[in-house]
Amino acid sequence: MGSYSIDDLKVGMSDYIQKTVTEADVVLFAGVSGDFNPVHIDEEYAKKSIFKTRIAHGMLSAGFISAALSTKLPGPGCIYLAQNLKFKAPVKINDTVKTTLTILDVNVKRKIVKIETICSVGDTKVIVGEATVMMQ
Predict the structure, then answer these.
(1) N or C: which end of the chain has fewer CB within 10 A?
(2) Which among 3, 8, 25, 1 has a CA at the least distance from the CA of 94?
(3) pLDDT recorded at residue 136
(4) What is the pLDDT of residue 1?
(5) CATH 3.10.129.10 is the classification of domain 10-134
(6) pLDDT digit string (tens) for 118-128?
C-alpha cells in the first residue's frame, strides 16, 4: 500500500491496481447505486444492444480509480477533489480492469496533485481522465 507525503511525489510517478469485474460486482453496484439499466442486469435485453452482452456500469469501473488513489498513489489519506472521465469502451463481466495512475503535476505549497487516470482492459483504454487530489 502506497503512503506518500507531498514532498515524496514527483511528476511521472506511476502505479496501478487490477480488478476482475464479477457478476456479483455488477449486481451489488446496481443495488447500491439504484442503476438497474437492463444493459447491465438483463442478458436477453443486452443481447439486443450494440454490446451484444451485459456490460458493467461505467461508474463501477470509475470507482477503481478511487481505490487506486487511496491505496497506491498517492495513498491513504488523500482527499479526492475532482475527476473528469471519458468512457471509451465497455467493460464486460469477467474483464480485468487495470487502473493506472500517473502524476502530472505537484503543487507542494497548496498540497494539490493532478493525476492522469486510465482504466484499460488488455490494450484497450476503457476510461481516460484526470483526477485532482489534496494531500493532508
Answers:
(1) N
(2) 25
(3) 87
(4) 62
(5) yes
(6) 999 999 999 99
Q: For the range 61-65, what are the long-range contacts, defined as Cβ-Cβ under 8 Å and sequence gap of 24 or more?
A: 61/21, 61/91, 61/97, 61/119, 61/126, 61/127, 62/119, 62/127, 64/17, 64/19, 64/97, 64/99, 64/119, 65/99, 65/101, 65/117, 65/119, 65/127, 65/129, 65/131
Among 127, 14, 129, 7, smallest CA distance to 80 is for 129
- Three cell numbers at 4? 506518500
What is the DSSP code (8-state) at residue 31? H
Say if residues 10 and 110 touch (Cβ distance below 8 Å).
no
The residue written with cell numbers 437492463 in the block is 38
Place of cell 487511496: 70
Q: Is the pTM of this model over 0.90?
A: yes
Which residues are within 8 A (CB) of 104 and not within 5 positions of it... i.e. 6 or more apart? 11, 114, 115, 116, 130
